[in-house]
Write a structure and sequence with these properties.
alpha+beta, four-stranded antiparallel β-sheet, seven-stranded antiparallel β-sheet, Jelly Rolls, 3 helices
Length: about 200
């Protein structure tokens, strides 16, 4: 049951969720390897004229040299480590999509977050396909429609899960990982995308 793809019932979207895309044991091993093998960095962001450290660690990896820009940050990719290649090949087989790039996020605790945004940067094309894989602690993923406040959704992204967003989803929805006061462990999220 948990391996069955579940389509989110949200208008103007095409979002699929697979809770146990990776087994519990494999997810635990992959988390440890990703934590150790990815070159994490913490960039500065500007909010309302003030400079802050981004509330999470990130890394951009790709099989090309195409940079990725968001929130006035431009990241230059590093080569894929073997562990990310392994995850990428499984994601590509399931989604029937060839991804070039992966933006990785490390949420160290409940204070780390990612504010409301859409993955709609011009580098990603018109209707981007975003495959998001999570390892480690579970965190809630919030979605809300840009114009219709009635259309909103909250889903818990568990370790080993896959969330696939495609079609016009990024045109119509914002998403976030909110801060939480609950005691939560570290979470690693890999978001595979296409930048040509």
């Amino acid at each position: 049951m948990f391996n069955e793809p579940f389509k989110l019932n949200l208008p103007d979207s095409d979002i699929l969720y697979v809770q146990k895309f990776f087994s519990e044991e494999e997810s635990l091993n992959l988390f440890k390897m990703l934590f150790e093998e990815i070159e994490w960095q913490q960039d500065e962001i500007k909010l309302f004229g003030k400079t802050h450290l981004q509330p999470r660690l990130t890394s951009l990896m790709a099989d090309n040299d195409k940079p990725y820009s968001y929130s006035n940050i431009t990241m230059t990719p590093k080569p894929f480590p073997d562990v990310v290649k392994h995850i990428k090949s499984k994601v590509e087989a399931f989604t029937k999509t060839k991804f070039t790039t992966c933006l990785a996020n490390l949420y160290r605790n409940g204070k780390d977050s990612n504010g409301w945004h859409s993955d709609n940067e011009k580098e990603l094309g018109v209707n981007p396909v975003i495959a998001s894989v999570s390892f480690g602690a579970s965190r809630f993923f919030h979605l809300k429609h840009k114009t219709n406040k009635l259309h909103k959704y909250k889903i818990e992204l568990t370790s080993g899960s896959l969330l696939l967003m495609k079609g016009e989803t990024q045109h119509h929805y914002l998403h976030q990982i909110a801060k939480t006061k609950k005691e939560v462990g570290s979470r690693i999220n890999l978001t595979f995308r296409i930048i040509n």
